[in-house]
Amino acid sequence: MSPHSREQQRRKQVKGRSLLAGALVGVGLAAFVDEVVFHQLLHWHHFYDKASSEAGLVSDGIFHAFGWLAMVAGLFLYADLWRRGARHLTAWWSGLCLGLGGFQLYDGTFQHKALELHQIRYGVDLAPYDWTWNVIAVLFLLVGVLLLVRARR
After folding, report:
1. How far is 107 from 93, CA to CA, in rounded Å?
2. Do 120 and 63 form a contact (C-beta atoms < 8 A)?
3. 61-65 long-range CB contacts below 8 Å, 24 or more apart?
4. Which residues cross the membrane (predicted)?
5. What percent of the chain has pLDDT over 90?
6. What is the pLDDT of residues 20-54, one digit of tens each?
């Protein structure tokens, strides 16, 4: 393998690891904001609303742990890239937007509608909430894709 080919391969790996680190941080950030804002501050729902309040609180704890696990893993991966002087910021931001938007769209479509684990809010017309939730997710995904295209150049 020529030195030029090795350098191209290394750059590709750096972009891929930066993308993964950003995606994990994005998932963790989306989970954190969802948990803190909608579960704890507004009290609109629990992660699992089909049982007792106690079960809802346990499900929130498991969800919160999952979000922090993703965040910590993403930050450790980013720190390793930083230590090696091998991070690619555009790929990282792309991953962050893709992780955040992907998690939010998954939550808004699969968890809210397909599994019916919970809704964004109860006792109100859900359409404006659902549309807002999912449109914001799609916007994050679009920004992530645009940044990914830019990072691949």
Report:
1. 21
2. no
3. 63/31, 63/35, 63/39, 64/31, 64/32, 64/35
4. 20-42, 62-82, 89-106, 131-149
5. 59
6. 999 999 999 999 998 888 878 888 777 776 777 78
Pick the closest to residue 31 from 111, 87, 129 (CA basis).
Answer: 111
H or E segment and range at residue 61: helix 53-84
Task: Say which DSSP state 85 is in.
Answer: T
Tracing tokens 């916007």 back to the chain, one arrives at 139
- What is the three-class DSSP state of 59? helix
User: What whole-number distance in Å separates Cα of residue 68 and Cα of residue 140?
Assistant: 20
Tokens of 52: 């007792």
Q: What does each C-alpha distance from 24 to 79, 95, 97, 129 come to in angstroms?
A: 13, 8, 10, 25
Q: Which long-range contacts (CB under 8 A, 24 or more apart) does 54-61 make?
A: 60/35
